[in-house]
Amino acid sequence: MTDPVLEIDNLRVRFDTPDGTVDAVRGVSLTVAPGETVAVVGESGSGKSQVMMAAMGLLAANGKASGSVRYRGEEILNLPPDRLNRIRGRKITMIFQEPMTSLDPLYTIEDQLAEPLRVHGGLSPRAARARALELLDLVQIPDPARRLRAYPHELSGGQRQRVMIAMALANDPDLLIADEPTTALDVTIQAEILRLLAELQARLGMSILFITHDLGIVRAFADRVYVMRAGLVEEQGPTRRIFEAPEKPYTRMLLDAEPEGEKPPVAADAPVLLQGAGLRVTFGKPPGFLRRDTRFTAVKGIDLTLRQGQTIGVVGESGSGKSTLGRALLQLLPAEGRVVYLGQEIAGLDRAAMRPHRKGLQMVFQDPYGSLSPRMTVTEIITEGLLVHEPGLSRRDRAERAAQALTDVGLDASMRNRFPHEFSGGQRQRIAIARAVVLRPRVIVLDEPTSALDRSVQKQVIDLLRRLQAEHALSYIFISHDLAVVRAMADYVMVMKDGAVVEQGPTRAIFEAPGAEYTRALMRAAFDLGDLLTG
Amino acid sequence: MTDTAAPGRSLWATALLRLRRNRAAMASLVILALIACLAIFGPRLAPHGYAEVYPEFVKVAPSLRPYPQEDQVIPAAERALKRARVELGEITIDNGTVRIPLTSPREIDPRLARYLDRSDVFTEARIVDLSPDGKSAVAEARVQQLYFLMGTDANGRDLLSRILISLRISLTIGLLATAVALTIGVVYGATAGFLGGRIDNLMMRVVDILYSLPFVFFVILLVVFFGRNVVLMFIAVGAVEWLDMARIVRGQTLSLRRREFVQAAEAMGVSGGAIIRRHIIPNTLGTVIIYMTLLIPKVILLESFLSFLGLGVQEPLTSLGVLIAEGAKNMRNAPYMLIYPAATMTVLLFALNFLGDGLRDALDPKDR
């Protein structure tokens, strides 16, 4: 084997925090050979990003790295910045997860792309511009000459990530480190970006070190895999071997975390709980004095019927209006159209008139970190709804109901006096579910309840939701961009795009024979990533 | 239900732990506690009343030795007895008692001792050894032992006592005006931010209008109408400072309102008032507390500024600002009159600012 491009040997990273030292990385060794694609995969908190940050000298001020990181035999760990910069940003470059924040909003794409070429590459302004154009062309941005003059906010997320890749490629690097570069993107765009990376690698012959939590990407994309857990490499080997014959139970658990099963459809004569007709949601204001028309229709006339025990999966990419639809159904947003709950018209009711219905219509949000008030204890959070809907309960009764709800969602009731920040993401989502369930609702709108969670935790939450549905005869509206989860959870699917329903029907029918072109594209990007990259 | 539920560590508790590790902030906290004790108990324990005037000791320099000092006793006795129209013999001082032989062509009235008593320098004056013809006598009096550790001011009042009372006034104004600003600002800001839309617009325009009032004119106007008193100071300062607080809280509320836990509460049917009370205000408190520790010194400075202009508290009460203003007038011949109040003020402001800084680090949500 040829000499490795990057060799990391027994790397340790330690953070000094006010609450004690934290060992984020506890002796990790890995190598990247020229032209190879290596994936580092792990759940959140496994230290996979910190390995790269340490190698690139990008640790936070309270972090300390020890061990060895060699680029073509040269030690680069803890080098002073001026010497490190001869390699960092030239021979080894990085792209990050957040294309929204990695570009400076105050400068045009040309400024940001050409500046390093002129300063580091010593190119004249004209030559730098030509090279910038060439780079944008390389990353397949349509109409690159016009994009050069654009500001970051004028580009979409996928285009921004392409610009980031162009910047990373500017100096012909030997190694590209990609830290979750597609996590913030929609699946179809993710597939495009991955395909672009694969093509560029074939053309330019660089190595790629790919950090991700998504095993689907790893399988389609990487030659070799390192599985990380709690700051250590749990298992490593060629991708094929890892996926076909994992040695460690942890790896097997990760591979098995793919959501499974499906939900049988409900009887056609099951009672209708919630019905929406011609739902329209418009944001912004009509044109007026000194004001442009800022109106934007997020949901364009949608009909929906939810029966007892049913789970409707609402699928779509970001901006498709699926979350807005969920909020409009619960009257959390002003919407046009009719909403009927248990035979009663609830559209347009004011706060007070809506209150009695709220008990039966609950919601669980995407971000388990944002949806729990940080200054309240778990009991206070869970029982807040009881204060409104069952004001007769005594304090003790409420605490008892909270404890019961916690047990219901698989948490230890002795944790009820803790605060949200003392729980992990999955536990927080369970608390959020407990808060909805404690009111004994009929319908729960689940707005991407598993998107912010690790795959293994995701599976547990899905199992929990299924169990609760069976035990309490709940009906769900399950909003998600993740087709695998929707396939496992829902018995009816609505595919949304640009505020309208593209296709709908029973889950099995849709997944087996998608009718609309858009649905097919979504499914290809979600399930056949490997074919998409090679084909 | 188990009764073994362990209490969690709230964000407040965590912040307190973090604050404890900040030495500068903890030192400031101790200093502030000390200053607060001085402000509360100091005036009672001080050797002199803050309004007590010692005409004999105008602008005496700070000293660890008691006043009158030795060379002052004889001139003081001569000055005191000048109007008694008696001849003074050789004055002797012995062990804190002064003996003054007196002779007079007329009979000496024993009540003459009062001349001595009237002076700040002597007590327990009496006439002893009155000769049978009544024309010569010896006046005896104890020499006072007065300590002026920080000297006296231009009216002969003890500066230490005045600094202690001024601390009390300044801290009271600081705390009360801040409390006024806090209450109005938080409620107003949270309401405006939570209701949003047209009401928010209207409420914030009111704030803008109040902002545009020149503060000093506003105070002068109040003084003209209501006369000068301390309560007015609270109102004037509080009425201006809540504007900043309202803006800060409104901004916080606007961003909190979009947080999912507020939406979750709305989805549960929690009323607007309860959302503000349970979700919005507790989550703005971190910022508010930080702002408050910075507001207290600001208010104290503002009060000093007003007092410096002569619009503040009234004699014989005093505040740090008044003392500094007086000190500035006497800077040349009695620099200590400026140095001590200014030093006190500096220590107080430093401690408050360091504490505010420490709180900001401790409560910073970035760590979470």
UniProtKB/TrEMBL annotation, chain A:
<dbReference type="GO" id="GO:0055085">
    <property type="term" value="P:transmembrane transport"/>
</dbReference>
<keyword id="KW-0813">Transport</keyword>
<dbReference type="GO" id="GO:0015833">
    <property type="term" value="P:peptide transport"/>
</dbReference>
<dbReference type="InterPro" id="IPR013563">
    <property type="entry name" value="Oligopep_ABC_C"/>
</dbReference>
<dbReference type="InterPro" id="IPR003593">
    <property type="entry name" value="AAA+_ATPase"/>
</dbReference>
<dbReference type="Pfam" id="PF00005">
    <property type="entry name" value="ABC_tran"/>
</dbReference>
<dbReference type="GO" id="GO:0016887">
    <property type="term" value="F:ATP hydrolysis activity"/>
</dbReference>
<dbReference type="GO" id="GO:0005886">
    <property type="term" value="C:plasma membrane"/>
</dbReference>
<dbReference type="GO" id="GO:0005524">
    <property type="term" value="F:ATP binding"/>
</dbReference>
<feature type="domain" description="ABC transporter">
    <location>
        <begin position="6"/>
        <end position="255"/>
    </location>
</feature>
<feature type="domain" description="ABC transporter">
    <location>
        <begin position="274"/>
        <end position="523"/>
    </location>
</feature>
<protein>
    <submittedName>
        <fullName>Oligopeptide transport system ATP-binding protein</fullName>
    </submittedName>
</protein>
<keyword id="KW-0067">ATP-binding</keyword>
<dbReference type="InterPro" id="IPR050388">
    <property type="entry name" value="ABC_Ni/Peptide_Import"/>
</dbReference>
<dbReference type="Pfam" id="PF08352">
    <property type="entry name" value="oligo_HPY"/>
</dbReference>
<keyword id="KW-0472">Membrane</keyword>
<keyword id="KW-0547">Nucleotide-binding</keyword>
<comment type="similarity">
    <text>Belongs to the ABC transporter superfamily.</text>
</comment>
<dbReference type="InterPro" id="IPR027417">
    <property type="entry name" value="P-loop_NTPase"/>
</dbReference>
<dbReference type="InterPro" id="IPR003439">
    <property type="entry name" value="ABC_transporter-like_ATP-bd"/>
</dbReference>
<dbReference type="InterPro" id="IPR017871">
    <property type="entry name" value="ABC_transporter-like_CS"/>
</dbReference>
<keyword id="KW-1003">Cell membrane</keyword>
TrEMBL record, chain B:
<keyword id="KW-0653">Protein transport</keyword>
<keyword id="KW-0812">Transmembrane</keyword>
<keyword id="KW-0997">Cell inner membrane</keyword>
<feature type="transmembrane region" description="Helical">
    <location>
        <begin position="280"/>
        <end position="300"/>
    </location>
</feature>
<keyword id="KW-1003">Cell membrane</keyword>
<feature type="transmembrane region" description="Helical">
    <location>
        <begin position="337"/>
        <end position="356"/>
    </location>
</feature>
<feature type="transmembrane region" description="Helical">
    <location>
        <begin position="24"/>
        <end position="41"/>
    </location>
</feature>
<dbReference type="Pfam" id="PF00528">
    <property type="entry name" value="BPD_transp_1"/>
</dbReference>
<dbReference type="Pfam" id="PF12911">
    <property type="entry name" value="OppC_N"/>
</dbReference>
<keyword id="KW-0571">Peptide transport</keyword>
<dbReference type="GO" id="GO:0055085">
    <property type="term" value="P:transmembrane transport"/>
</dbReference>
<dbReference type="InterPro" id="IPR025966">
    <property type="entry name" value="OppC_N"/>
</dbReference>
<keyword id="KW-0813">Transport</keyword>
<dbReference type="InterPro" id="IPR000515">
    <property type="entry name" value="MetI-like"/>
</dbReference>
<keyword id="KW-1133">Transmembrane helix</keyword>
<dbReference type="GO" id="GO:0005886">
    <property type="term" value="C:plasma membrane"/>
</dbReference>
<keyword id="KW-0472">Membrane</keyword>
<feature type="domain" description="ABC transmembrane type-1">
    <location>
        <begin position="167"/>
        <end position="356"/>
    </location>
</feature>
<dbReference type="InterPro" id="IPR035906">
    <property type="entry name" value="MetI-like_sf"/>
</dbReference>
<feature type="transmembrane region" description="Helical">
    <location>
        <begin position="215"/>
        <end position="240"/>
    </location>
</feature>
<dbReference type="GO" id="GO:0015031">
    <property type="term" value="P:protein transport"/>
</dbReference>
<dbReference type="GO" id="GO:0015833">
    <property type="term" value="P:peptide transport"/>
</dbReference>
